[in-house]
Amino acid sequence: MDIDFIVVINLLNLDSYIIQLYMKIAVLVKQVVGSESSLEISQDQKWIDDSNATFVMNPPDNYAIEEAILIKEKVGLGEVVIVSMGPQRVQKVIREGLSKGADRGIHIETESLKEIDPLYTSKVLAETLRDENFDLILSGLQSDDSGMGQTGVLLGELLNMSTATLAIETDIDQNKIRVKRELESGWFQWVELESPASLSIQSGINQPRYPSLKGIMGAKKKEIKVIPAPQVEKRQSISEIFVPKKSKETEFIETDIDSTVERIIEILKTEVKVF
Fold first, then answer.
1. How far apart are the C-alpha atoms of 82 and 28, rounded to whole Å?
2. What would the mean pLDDT of 207-214 be, rounded to a whole number?
3. What is the CATH number of the domain that holds 27?
4. What's this model's pTM, rounded to 2 decimal places?
5. Any residues with CB less than 8 A from the CB of 37 and at least 6 apart, and which?
């Protein structure tokens, strides 16, 4: 494993020493529109008009931050770095993470989040974070706006890291990274990973802490490194955003079974467009 260790030597007794694990952990945090904000489609119908929206930290990311801090507290040494991508306003959620106990922040600056898909985001993150050599990268289950849930896994693959999703428990010590994953139908799975690793954290894994007044004041002095987003090819474009027209129409198909099936398939293809 490539996890760093720090050897602490007792100068009074050189025959005894303690090996402590040092974990360098990144937490991916996204700023999203608050659930109570009223959104309308922009005039060019290419995006939403968020000029009057309230922006908040993506709720599932709170669990990833808490888990990173708990891991750091357990191993004793290390740092937690909050990473976010977007315009200047995303520094608000970075500061929120710092106020909870993270050590520093990285702001990947881009003016627009239009036409950003998980692969593009992951490539930008990979290019930016590659030289940081993180031992762990944690991300929330998914974002409240797009709900893709792919960025953490894609980033791990691009950085040649072990990956695991739906983590509901972590067990990290000097020799291993063990993750308990939530599966379907009430089943669970323990997996052992090599370091470095990228984990998607399931919501509910812990109880996220609230920032203390001391933490809020201290966050103002912590470093946020601003890095322009590297040039990465976008493979997704938005042609139009629109609200589906509501209509009520009933069609009675009174014919033989074969003709009825053909008509249903035609409706599904041309009107409902499920194929």
1. 6
2. 95
3. 3.40.50.620
4. 0.81
5. 50, 52, 53, 54
